């Protein structure tokens, strides 16, 4: 098993950094979606890249699907409420430097823990680290070669408000892994720091093995050093500078050889008697005895390489370790590593220069969102570049031969395999982005903020970070041509950053493709080969007022827009207004999302959606939301007769749904004012017709009262027969009836029939 700890620091004096950490991490853990952490805040982009780098270094693949999900010490069950809980506890301890921790536990391939084992893993990890009382959210990420568990925990005791756990959390985590490996019989890593026996944890570095009577290999009890007993009680730290037992036993012999030797040759010869070798390693040296080794300075300070060089001169290898040509091979490898590191520094400087130029070209007071986007893009591209160089350096390191024996077996090569440095394509100064389409000949794969393009052999050719293109295979003619065409289509003139060989290669290909290139100093980069002149091809023309590029075919942008639409659909009223175009705001002007910092209701989804609010799909969604908002506000002001000034309308709409804020932003827009004008006209028309309507109502009431009075007099003047009434008659006798009385009787009969019908219906119900 492998365990990794990522601590999330607090920004002093700022709650939003901690809030973003909690919200992004918990959403990532439960959704298994790296985009959840790739928010526009530059720290969050860095956190995501940091997680991916750590995960890859430990053989953990980013999760594609969340499996078993659970929590500890949380009062609520919904993610938004759990996020508020965790943020409240984390913010209550301002002196805790790292209030939130991200723990990653990974199993080896083929190990598939059950939900019960996952729950036990969480309990043991939290108990061993002293976080059992803390708020935690965990989820298993599946659909990868290695199953792994993510735990987001708040390192603050809810009861006391103090920091929970020790300052050696990584050591505690390794001890928890040892307990789990013994309990569930999971495989341990070859270089594990601890091992467990009967629930107790021991230091794996100092243990010795012995052979039993039957030839079995067992741990020598005399060499065991307990660091935690079976009850979980801490006993002692492991020996950080502990020596392997065999070297510790030979320490006196090594010091005697050092004291008696008069030169490097004499020293090597005296050590050889005890089968010990002294070899240079990096800037120091190590002592080797069988399979065990240790730093020479750890065995004794006087054995450090610098101490012995001061005594006997420059280090000289043992004749047995000296191999003709192997030293030159190692020097060539070191030179290649040095070149890769220098190229990485130059590429990072080129990215920083591009970002500085972009930021200097905008008015930061009015384009804060654009400024944040540029910085986020720069940081994401920086991480992608670092990842590419890390892969190149790893390839260089893995391809070398460490020992002379392996070097001889490989045919004694003079130089290590060449490793090309990743190179950059960037926009030239003042380049206007044009419409472009993704290359059709390569397989596109979205990766966080960027798109990676692979060839038919599934080799990574280049990575498109929108603001920069990282070329991973600079000497692949087809891949380089595709990257240059994409860059020229997007930017017109392309800036090339990389080694001298890469710049020459780009100049050769650009001359054939008709692409304009410049170097890091914005000087034209042309092919200097003595070849026949090539008919120049004009660079892409840039209009004085270029049209906005169409990014709808960009795979990464499509995914980001879809997520932004899903986030907007879950929100209430969206704060938006009409965008100013050419100094005017028309009724059909595009809508823009307005983002303002709110520590109590951050809604980080708005920040991401605002970056894409010019997209046609988001514009259509916003127009639909706008129409619904105007209809709701129109009905509200009609129903409650609200005054039509801004303050009265906004105050009447205040509530948790955000409708008041939306009305405040939209009040000055033409469509909002048109809605208010329609309401005002209706009120004027109602006031104009009100006197006539009141007069008609009074006349109708007077006629009704007169009719009732006439009916009352008829009843008073005529005799009444109840039996005739029960048999269906009018109840009035026929003799002496006038025509007026007859009409009144008919009307009375009709009214009585209606009353009886209603009474009958009520009894039935």
TrEMBL record:
<feature type="compositionally biased region" description="Basic and acidic residues">
    <location>
        <begin position="746"/>
        <end position="755"/>
    </location>
</feature>
<feature type="compositionally biased region" description="Basic and acidic residues">
    <location>
        <begin position="720"/>
        <end position="737"/>
    </location>
</feature>
<dbReference type="InterPro" id="IPR054462">
    <property type="entry name" value="TraI_M"/>
</dbReference>
<dbReference type="InterPro" id="IPR040677">
    <property type="entry name" value="LPD7"/>
</dbReference>
<dbReference type="Pfam" id="PF03432">
    <property type="entry name" value="Relaxase"/>
</dbReference>
<feature type="compositionally biased region" description="Basic and acidic residues">
    <location>
        <begin position="694"/>
        <end position="704"/>
    </location>
</feature>
<feature type="coiled-coil region">
    <location>
        <begin position="330"/>
        <end position="386"/>
    </location>
</feature>
<dbReference type="InterPro" id="IPR005094">
    <property type="entry name" value="Endonuclease_MobA/VirD2"/>
</dbReference>
<feature type="region of interest" description="Disordered">
    <location>
        <begin position="720"/>
        <end position="765"/>
    </location>
</feature>
<dbReference type="Pfam" id="PF18821">
    <property type="entry name" value="LPD7"/>
</dbReference>
<feature type="domain" description="TraI-like middle">
    <location>
        <begin position="254"/>
        <end position="317"/>
    </location>
</feature>
<dbReference type="Pfam" id="PF22863">
    <property type="entry name" value="TraI_middle"/>
</dbReference>
<protein>
    <recommendedName>
        <fullName>Large polyvalent protein-associated domain-containing protein</fullName>
    </recommendedName>
</protein>
<feature type="domain" description="MobA/VirD2-like nuclease">
    <location>
        <begin position="64"/>
        <end position="186"/>
    </location>
</feature>
<keyword id="KW-0175">Coiled coil</keyword>
<feature type="domain" description="Large polyvalent protein-associated">
    <location>
        <begin position="452"/>
        <end position="523"/>
    </location>
</feature>
<feature type="region of interest" description="Disordered">
    <location>
        <begin position="685"/>
        <end position="704"/>
    </location>
</feature>
């Amino acid at each position: 098993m492998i365990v990794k700890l990522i601590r999330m620091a607090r920004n002093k004096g700022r709650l939003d950094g901690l809030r973003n950490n909690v919200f992004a991490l918990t959403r990532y853990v439960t959704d298994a979606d790296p985009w959840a952490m790739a928010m526009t805040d530059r720290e969050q982009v860095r956190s995501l890249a940091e997680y991916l780098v750590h995960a890859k270094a430990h053989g953990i693949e980013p999760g594609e699907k969340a499996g078993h999900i659970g929590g500890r010490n949380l009062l609520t069950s919904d993610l938004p409420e759990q996020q508020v809980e965790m943020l409240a506890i984390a913010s209550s301890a301002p002196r805790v430097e790292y209030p939130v921790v991200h723990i990653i536990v990974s199993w080896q391939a083929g190990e598939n823990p059950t939900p019960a084992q996952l729950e036990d893993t969480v309990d043991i990890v939290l108990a061993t680290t002293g976080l059992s009382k803390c708020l935690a959210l965990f989820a298993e990420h599946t659909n990868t070669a290695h199953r792994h568990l993510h735990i987001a925990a708040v390192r603050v005791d809810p009861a006391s408000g103090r920091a929970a756990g020790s300052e050696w959390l990584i050591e505690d985590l390794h001890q928890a892994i040892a307990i789990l490996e013994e309990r569930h019989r999971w495989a341990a890593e070859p270089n594990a720091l601890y091992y467990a026996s009967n629930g107790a944890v021991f230091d794996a570095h100092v243990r010795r093995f012995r052979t039993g009577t039957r030839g079995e290999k067992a741990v020598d009890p005399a060499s065991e050093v307990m660091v935690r007993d079976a009850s979980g009680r801490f006993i002692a730290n492991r020996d950080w500078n502990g020596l392997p037992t065999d070297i510790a036993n030979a320490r006196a012999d090594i010091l005697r050889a050092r004291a008696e030797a008069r030169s490097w040759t004499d020293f090597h010869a005296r050590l050889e008697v005890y089968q010990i070798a002294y070899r240079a390693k990096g800037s120091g040296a190590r002592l080797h005895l069988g399979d065990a080794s240790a730093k020479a300075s750890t065995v004794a300070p006087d054995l450090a390489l610098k101490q012995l060089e001061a005594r006997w001169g420059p280090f000289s290898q043992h004749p047995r370790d000296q191999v003709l040509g192997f030293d030159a091979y190692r020097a060539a490898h070191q030179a290649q590593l040095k070149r890769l590191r220098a190229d990485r520094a130059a590429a990072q400087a080129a990215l920083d220069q591009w970002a500085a130029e972009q930021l200097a070209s905008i008015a930061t007071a009015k384009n804060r969102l654009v400024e944040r986007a540029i910085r986020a893009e720069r940081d994401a591209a920086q991480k992608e570049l670092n990842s590419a160089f890390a892969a190149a350096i790893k390839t260089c390191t893995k391809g070398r031969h460490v020992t002379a024996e392996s070097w001889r077996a490989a045919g004694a090569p003079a130089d290590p395999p060449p490793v090309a440095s990743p190179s950059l394509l960037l926009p030239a100064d003042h380049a206007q982005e044009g419409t472009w389409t993704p290359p059709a000949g390569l397989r596109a794969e979205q990766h966080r903020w960027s798109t990676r393009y692979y060839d038919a052999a599934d080799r990574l050719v280049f990575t498109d970070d929108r603001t920069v293109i990282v070329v991973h295979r600079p000497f692949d003619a087809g891949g380089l041509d595709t990257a240059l065409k994409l860059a020229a289509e997007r930017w017109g003139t392309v800036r090339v950053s990389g080694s001298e060989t890469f710049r020459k290669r780009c100049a050769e290909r650009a001359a054939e493709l008709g692409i304009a290139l410049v170097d890091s100093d914005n000087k034209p980069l042309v092919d200097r080969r003595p070849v026949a002149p090539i008919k120049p091809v004009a660079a892409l023309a840039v209009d004085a007022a270029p049209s906005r590029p169409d990014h709808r075919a960009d795979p990464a942008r499509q995914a980001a827009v879809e997520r932004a639409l899903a986030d907007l659909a879950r929100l209430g009223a969206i704060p938006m207004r009409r965008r100013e175009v050419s100094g005017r705001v028309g009724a059909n002007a595009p809508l823009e999302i307005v983002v303002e910092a709110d520590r109590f209701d951050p809604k980080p989804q708005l920040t991401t959606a605002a970056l894409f609010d010019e997209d046609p799909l988001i514009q259509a969604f916003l127009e639909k939301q706008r129409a619904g908002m105007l209809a709701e506000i129109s009905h509200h002001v009609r129903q409650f007769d609200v005054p039509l000034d801004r303050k009265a309308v906004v105050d009447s709409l205040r509530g948790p749904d955000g409708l008041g804020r939306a009305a405040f932003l939209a009040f000055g827009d033409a469509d909002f004012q048109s809605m208010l004008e329609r309401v005002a006209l209706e009120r004027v028309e109602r006031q104009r017709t009100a006197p006539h309507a009141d007069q008609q109502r009074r006349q109708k009431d007077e006629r009704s009262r007169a009719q009732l009075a006439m009916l009352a007099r008829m009843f008073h003047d005529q005799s009444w027969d109840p039996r005739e009434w029960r048999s269906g008659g009018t109840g009035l006798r026929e003799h002496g009836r006038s025509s007026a009385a007859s009409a009144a009787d008919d009307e009375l009969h009709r009214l009585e029939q209606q009353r009886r019908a209603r009474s009958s219906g009520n009894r039935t119900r």
